[in-house]
């Protein structure tokens, strides 16, 4: 009889690196709400792949230079324009990419709306060509999500066997030598977090039921995200935190940076929803960004007026959502053009989370805004 542990190990050794042109043939037809990063920006990745002559770590689609260029943007030698996926300090992206080129996992932390998920998706797309190996952290996420599960019909019929095993995204990433993503790491139960320690330190995933293990191929690594306001949900143990290099993504440093981020994402989302490009004028986008920044920082942009801060984060992502929602309303139910009065309702919904405290903050801000 064949040793099941040997079967598992042999499968791992001979598994090929994932080919994204085979894995996702359905998305090329374009009828999807949100294409994955490697599909939406396939032309940029292909151009970088063609022109990037720098050394590439094992199983990386691009060199570290190519990955950084894909994230921060630039113009390639053949004239291809790579749009920035992250607008901020290039050094942060360089640190993240350099970490992933080692055997250390990467933890992206920051306030909600600071593009942690966005950055992790694009890092996985640029490095592995596949951003879909994902574990979404919730309070109900089971240990099987980061280890493996079983096809119980086959398990009952045949007993434990490689054929009855259902691999997790972490398992598949180890087989392929790819990047796996874990969103909201601090929302995972503590015992599920602890299941990652062996994976990150030993680069193996034991399978005691089969008397074997999965050994990670070169190129395997893990990107996790966590936000600063969730430390008290399931705070990481010191043992697990030591397995990560941490990069903190800050809120946009300047109003101009935030306007660029919002304008770019609004244009992308508007195009995906087939909304006219000019539905949200640039001056209204800047006004929304100004309102969000002033409430977030507790003072006017010129620093002369002190303001109360709401209980919410007033993040860049929320500003984008408000503008896109208003564009949809204006196009489908209005005259096709967003005005600031139309945006106020969406802003109020973002501000007033606590009906007592936040309502006072919003009324005082409106009084200040009207006075200006």
What are the low-pLDDT stretches, counting only 5+ consecutive residues below 50? 1-29
Q: State the end-to-end CA separation.
A: 82 Å
- What's the CATH class label of the largest domain? Alpha Beta
Main beta sheet: strand number and arrangement?
Answer: 5 strands, parallel
Shape: globular
Number of helical segments? Answer: 16
In the CATH hierarchy, the architecture of the largest domain is 3-Layer(aba) Sandwich
Query: Secondary-structure element order, as H and E?
Result: HHHHHEEHEHEEHEHEHEEEHEHHHHH
How many structural domains does the protein architecture include? 2
Strand order of the largest sheet: 4-7-10-3-11
Mean of the pLDDT scores? Answer: 88
- Overall structural class, as computed from helix and strand content, comes to alpha/beta
Rg from Cα:
23 Å
Proportion of residues in extended strands: 5-15%
Q: By CATH's scheme, which homologous superfamily of the largest domain applies?
A: P-loop containing nucleotide triphosphate hydrolases
According to CATH, what is the topology of the largest domain? Rossmann fold
Helix content: 40-55%
